[in-house]
Design goal:
There is one protein chain. The chain is an alpha+beta fold. It has two domains: 198 residues, Beta-Lactamase, CATH 3.30.450; 251 residues, TIM Barrel (Alpha-Beta Barrel), CATH 3.20.20. It is 45% helix and 25% strand. It contains 15 helices and 21 strands. An eight-stranded mixed beta barrel has the order 12-13-15-16-17-18-19-20, surrounded by four helices. Helix 1 packs antiparallel against helix 3, helix 1 packs across helix 4 and helix 8 runs parallel beside helix 9. It is rod-shaped, with a radius of gyration of 52 Å. Bound molecules: guanosine-5'-monophosphate (2 copies) and manganese (II) ion. One guanosine-5'-monophosphate (G) binds next to strand 17.
Amino acid sequence: MPLTVRPRRNRSIRILVTLICGLLPFLLGTAILYMQAERSLQQSSQNTADEALRQFELMLDNTAQAAHELLPLAGQPCNDVKLALREQVTRRPFVRSTNLVWDNNLYCSSLFGDYQEAVNPGDYAQGKLWLMNGNPVTPNTALLVFRLSEGRGGALTTLDGYHLSNILRLIGRQTLLLLQVGDTWLSADGKVHEGPPPELPVAQSMLNSSRYAFSVSAGYPEGETWRYMLVEYPPLFSLLMFFGVVSGAIGHMVQKRSTSPSHEMLRALEAGEFIPYFQPVVHGDSKLWSGAEVLMRWNHPKEGLVRPDLFIPFAEHSGLIVPMTRALMRQTAALLGPISSTLPAPFHVGINITANHCQDLELVEDCREFLAAFVPGSIDLVLELTERELIEPTDVTRQLFDQLHALGVRIAIDDFGTGHSSLAYLRKFNVDFLKIDQSFVAMIGLDALSRHILDSIIELSAKLDLGIVAEGVETQAQSDYLTAHHHVNFLQGYLFGKPMPAADFINALNHH
Ligand code: G
Ligand code: G
Ligand code: MN
């Protein structure tokens, strides 16, 4: 089987999923907080604009009242009315100067008395309000002029820009705030600018006065939302971070758990981590190596060499045992096939097969492929079926065993004596070998009863014309007993050799 490299992608995907699990609560939470911060800022800029609008209207009320009181005096000689003009300036806190107009000519002023200056109504927004950048008395100082006119007469009262910029500064302490009158606008530093006011990047609120021709804009500079979040939400950020860590950890654990035994074994199968070990099987008479049992080992990247008792049960449960056995047979064929002509013929090759593998006829194809790798007649392929889980006789299994026999494949009952197969069973499946369980062999010389059982098994199999393989032969005495008394066909055990890697086995085989 082609060795596939252990897929690395899986690992980076796992790290990615953990990262996403960890970041998601943080990102979602931050998005929600961002929207919340925007709403708070919008609310606050709206309140600021409201408050400023109210203050400006109060001041203009004061200025407008002066104009209303003076308007009836328009047209009268300046000398007669200039005291009345000055009285308004003294009495009203937000009036800096007062003036009277006749036929668009400013002819009388609280400051200079008699005066001459043309008035252009087009300078005034809606004919009523003019935001000037100073006058000859105080150049470069903002001045808001209120104009009231009726017929040929008119009154102009002015409001000092100092009051206006003060309001912009005080109310807009945390906010950008500006006052717009017609095509000019006033910033908090008291400067008057021409043209449209700038856009305020964050949470802009613009309010038009319903009573006077001005509007107020409030808002925040670029990046204010993030600054606001950093100042207001640190405890919530810590909480989000905590949730992120918890959710990342949960994501990590859920993924770990999904790496179930069968998942891990599938990975190992794809990575070619299941490899064959070979235990020599010797001829009963000559004690020459004349075969091997193939035993699976898991060459785990972290755990090292894992014994089959620890993973075969999982493999059987998940059904993975079938592709695992197939891979083992392919590796065995690739290892022994090329040297098949040098093997002592016929070379006995035992492969352990589970009941799972006998559910359909695929096993026939597996064996055919296996045998095709060898010089014809050079090996005896023996499938070992453990007596502990016997196969139900059905149409399919009967067909299976018939076809296997037709291929020349032999059947052995493994661990014989530990289960409960009947004579009828042995006949039905045309069994060729019995592998006597090592527990009986171990009793030789110790226990008379076990030895009697051993004796009868061997006699029975001789009568049924079955071959015998004795397993677990560890001492010379056991070996002698089995061959001198009974002519057991094959022996297997530590006395002759332990299960070993292919290279060691082939090497040792050459020296025998
Ligand atoms: O050699 P050892 O300790 O490895 O074997 C332990 C058990 O695992 C034995 O019962 C043996 O039959 C079983 N075993 C070893 N290799 C395989 C195999 O490839 N398939 C199956 N089904 N069982 C195996
Ligand atoms: O069930 P099966 O026959 O497939 O299992 C063979 C098992 O027996 C393997 O685990 C193998 O390592 C073990 N084995 C083989 N020879 C000996 C032996 O001489 N002594 C002991 N204790 N175990 C053996
Ligand atoms: Mn076996």
